[in-house]
């Protein structure tokens, strides 16, 4: 049986590991989080992924039962059984600076257990230059030489959360190898799960940079449309309708505005690129402006809430619906919704938030829509979820009293006119 080790079992690593397991591979999944490993061994995950009609929970249980997926914390046991190792360990950003310690720690563990002829495939999003200048030297501390004794490649991760299985299979993959044999080994491995084109670039740095730019262009696009929103609001126009019309042009593809930019990928992209840009003496003016603009959106939304409370003289209470970093997600990492809630609480607004997909516990989080809406007039919609029935708002708040601030275009102005509630859009 073919085998592979996947290190890092988060939003990327777990569906990636299970993708190989479904192809008949024996997959050793490694993560330093012992609680996570114990949950996975029991078939428990809170990810909202599915594939061919099966939820990720069902897939996980199947692959555990048939022995194709083995979660563990032990690098030594995992690496002694495989020829291929895939790394999806994150590089978080703290205070605007990338934090490499998790990746460095992972590289050191691999180095201690590295065997001849193994392929190490890095799939984390990184600061350009990381694979060659940080990851590779640590691997060679093993005493083995890259390109002769072992192989190294970098392939960018391009999935959207919620579509991971589909996009591992149907999204073109970009990669680069340390040498020709490294690239060939990586192509052969990725072909196991990817049906689309595999693009082999000339260097690690090309693929690393392309990946960061892929994310950063979305950050810039989102900043742009949120700025457009402020203009259209001043003109009493619906930004969602304006963008819908603009996007009928065949060369225009505007994103929609929202309450901010969250998750692990897009908010960190600027800081990955800027870390290298500073080293090179290059100033990223446009990218920095977009990032600063997006970081200010939660303050803009909280200002809108406070102004709405003052305008309608309603109680300083708000029901927040959706706290995930985007629609139909369980991921609350760097979620702008959390930032908005904290700002509102600091301004003396009582917040009760409902999001059935997010499992993190917060002091403001409640377990039902009814509980969130109790004794409240003002509703702030920050994310759509399958478990949030927005039409039921009016079962708990009479339409004549309801005030809804809608950042996700759940309701139209026609809805407000027909039902008689007050609608504010961003």
In CATH, the homologous superfamily of the largest domain goes by the name: NAD(P)-binding Rossmann-like Domain
Strand order of the largest sheet: 5-2-1-6-9-10-11-12
The largest pleated sheet is described as: 8 strands, mixed
Number of helices: 16
The CATH topology of the largest domain comes to Rossmann fold
Organism: Caldicellulosiruptor acetigenus (strain ATCC 700853 / DSM 12137 / I77R1B)
GO molecular function, one term: NAD binding
Keywords: NAD, Oxidoreductase
GO biological process, one term: polysaccharide biosynthetic process
Explain what this protein looks like in three dimensions.
The protein has helices spanning 13-22, 34-41, 56-65, 75-79, 101-113, 130-139, 164-170, 180-190, 204-234, 239-246, 266-280, 285-312, 336-346, 369-373, 393-396, 413-419, and strands at residues 3-7, 26-30, 50-51, 54-55, 69-72, 84-87, 93-94, 97-98, 119-122, 151-155, 173-177, 198-200, 317-321, 350-354, 378-381, 403-406, 422-425. By secondary structure, the chain is of the alpha/beta class. The chain folds into two domains: 3-202, Rossmann fold (3-Layer(aba) Sandwich); 217-425, 3-Layer(aba) Sandwich (Rossmann fold). It has an eight-stranded mixed β-sheet, sandwiched between helices. Strands 14-13-15-16-17 form a five-stranded parallel β-sheet, sandwiched between helices. A hairpin with a 2-residue loop joins strand 3 (50-51) and strand 4 (54-55).
């Amino acid at each position: 049986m073919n085998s592979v080790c996947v290190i890092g079992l988060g939003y990327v690593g777990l569906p990636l590991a299970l993708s190989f397991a479904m192809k008949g591979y024996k997959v050793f999944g490694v993560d330093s989080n012992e609680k996570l490993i114990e949950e996975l061994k029991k078939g428990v995950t809170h990810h909202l992924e599915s594939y061919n009609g099966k939820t990720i929970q069902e897939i996980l249980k199947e692959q555990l039962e048939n022995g194709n997926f083995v979660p563990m914390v032990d690098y030594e046991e995992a690496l002694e059984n495989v020829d291929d190792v895939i790394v999806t360990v994150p590089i978080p950003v703290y205070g605007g600076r990338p934090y490499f310690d998790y990746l460095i720690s992972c590289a050191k563990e691999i180095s201690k257990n590295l065997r001849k002829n193994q392929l190490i495939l890095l799939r984390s999003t990184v600061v350009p230059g990381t694979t060659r200048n940080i990851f590779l030297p640590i691997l060679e501390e093993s005493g083995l030489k890259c390109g002769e004794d072992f192989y190294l490649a970098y392939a960018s991760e391009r999935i959207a959360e919620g579509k991971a299985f589909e996009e591992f299979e149907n999204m073109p993959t970009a990669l680069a190898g340390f040498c020709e044999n490294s690239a060939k080994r990586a192509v052969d491995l990725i072909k196991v799960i990817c049906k689309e084109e595999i693009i082999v670039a000339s260097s690690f740095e090309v693929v690393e940079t392309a990946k960061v730019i892929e994310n950063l262009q979305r950050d810039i696009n989102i900043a742009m449309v949120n700025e457009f929103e402020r203009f259209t609001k001043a003109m009493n126009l619906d930004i969602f309708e304006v963008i819908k019309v603009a996007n009928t042009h065949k060369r225009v593809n505007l994103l929609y505005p929202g309450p901010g930019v969250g998750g692990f990928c897009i908010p960190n992209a600027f800081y990955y690129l800027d870390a290298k840009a500073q080293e090179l003496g290059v100033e990223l003016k446009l990218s920095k402006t977009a990032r600063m603009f997006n970081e200010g959106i939660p303050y803009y939304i909280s200002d809108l809430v406070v102004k709405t409370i003052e305008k309608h003289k309603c109680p300083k209470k708000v029901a927040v619906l959706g706290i995930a970093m985007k629609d139909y997600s369980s991921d609350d990492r760097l979620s702008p919704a959390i930032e908005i809630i904290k700002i509102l609480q600091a301004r003396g607004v009582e917040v009760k938030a409902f999001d059935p997909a997010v499992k993190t516990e917060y002091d403001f989080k409640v377990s039902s829509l009814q509980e969130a809406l109790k004794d409240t007039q003002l509703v702030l919609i920050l994310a759509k979820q399958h478990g949030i029935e927005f039409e039921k708002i009016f079962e708990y708040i009479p339409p004549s009293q309801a005030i809804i601030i809608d950042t996700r275009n759940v309701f139209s102005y026609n809805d407000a006119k027909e039902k008689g509630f007050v609608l504010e859009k961003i």
